[in-house]
Write a structure and sequence with these properties.
heterodimer, A: mainly alpha, MetI-like fold, 14 helices, 74% helix, B: mainly alpha, 13 helices, flat
Amino acid sequence: MLKNKGNMALKVVIYIVCIFLAILSIMPFWIMIMNATRSTTEIQQHAISLLPSGYTMNNLKILLGKSFNPAVGFGNSLIISLGATGLAVYFSSLTAYALVAYDWKLRQPFFSFIMAIMMIPAQVTMIGFYQMVYKIHMTNNLWMLILPAIASPSMVFFMRQYLQPALSMEIVQSARIDGAGEFLIFNKIVLPIMKPAIATQAIFSFVSSWNNLFTPLVLLTDQKKYTMPIMVSLLRGDIYKTEYGSVYLGLTLTVLPLIVVYLVLSKYIIAGVALGSVKG
Amino acid sequence: MKKKKLGYAKYGYIFSIPFVIAFLLFSLYPIVYTALIGFTDLKGLGMTSFHFLTDDPFRNFKTVLTNPSFIKALKNTVIIWLFNFVPQILLALLLTAWFTDKRSTVKGQGLFKVLFYMPNIITAATIAILFNSLFGYPMGPVNDILMKLGFTDSPINLLINKTVAKGVVIFIQTWMWYGYTMVILISGVLGVSPEIFEAAEVDGANRVQTFFYVTLPNIKTILLFTLVTSLIGGLNMFDIPKLFLLGGPDNATLTTSVFIYNQAFSGSYMYNRAAAASMIMFVIIAILSAIMFQILKDKDEEKLRRQIRQQQKSYKIKQKELKKAQALSRESQETFQAATVEEEKGEEDV
């Protein structure tokens, strides 16, 4: 009886904490979305409203009348994220296959090397990278944000860990007997085997590329090449200082697609986070 | 057969070529280049030519290390990381303990996980500016709440206070990352064999005991992994401090990454100093991750060594037993032989 009472109390505490945290996760975004529909005067009088108002179009007019251009940011971010994710996923799988399927002299040293460089953050190499890109006049070229994804050490590591137990060399052997070339075997047989790993890694690669601020901020100076995070950073500027409604609307435009995609894919995303950690 | 294997081995090299080329071009070359620039006089917008500092090669490093802004940035980075990591890991551990408790399940767990993880997926740049708006002065949502609850009669410009500003950055970081850490820790606990928990329950361990004596020791590796990745991520913190208050007020939220960016890409474009600061950060990160991996590796090796020793021990014991048994059987055989010989003798006698 006593134990039951203790259990009940604990349960109540658990739910209170969890509900509080859940509200904390939703609240900032809810206020943001509601304020996106309200006029600056309304926000100045009462900055919090749980219900929408009718000034969305007005806010949008002011927002788009200045330098913020969500369509351009969206397009550029999409090009970069899709390109970088495609390259990262394909070439990481290829490198992982080289590490698992073939018996070559440098295989073990190469794998140790990949583990060693996994932790190098992009930030500490940025000055040299910027100077190099500037010298070849490619600072506003989106390829400079896409191509580096070919070498994604942590993804190679993950793909290798996945492929190691999943790949049966007998299938590869029989394909060889049927006369298939090594490259064809990789594309037609190995890639389909890796589909689950590719799906999770693709999601994370896409999200991190989409959210990346540092590298684009350093390289891109042309407004037409701006990515979504740089567009967002414009809302911080003086031109929107008093346009509260428009700032909230601008933020909402960048967040809503992400929230929708997240809620649709949340099951896979959370499973993917869990899967990724097993490597540690 | 062996020849054929060698023939295939070359594909190992061929398929690694794209990775290696991209790494050399986009990672190794920039690192070496950054290191070199640290020893030069390269500064000024759009400059690419430079001279090595011959009189005092380490001048940039000395300037950076004695620069009060850099020291402050380094301190801020460590403080912000530490004060966000501790509550983050504690909260994550608490939620992990609740969500993985088999004796009483939390309903709606799936939904809670989705919501707790959500801030992590949203663009950090957006979150920084959103919080800047939420703390807006004179009229922002936070001030609105404070006035409605009667904490204050007139709006306060909260973010000009250095402690509050740093505190909000710490809060944002914790808020963005505790869900991620929780998901990782939960997967770690689920990876532990359930028999261990059952055994603990049979032995009469209560929830708290189970958590501290069974769960925690079993997810040590994952905790360490979380610590390393969080530390390295924390040392590179950029988006939130850069866009939330632009490093202010009075450098209270300036981190090393923001310092490096500001040195190189604003003001007098001092690429050389920024490069020197980058290399200092690179060395710190390299040392930290090396230490952590050593700890992880040693643990693994120790385990292996212990296993081997145990096997050897049991092998030796087995050998001893075997010898004993052999000796015994030899003895018995001898006595048996002796007996038969005697018997035979006896038979012969007859």
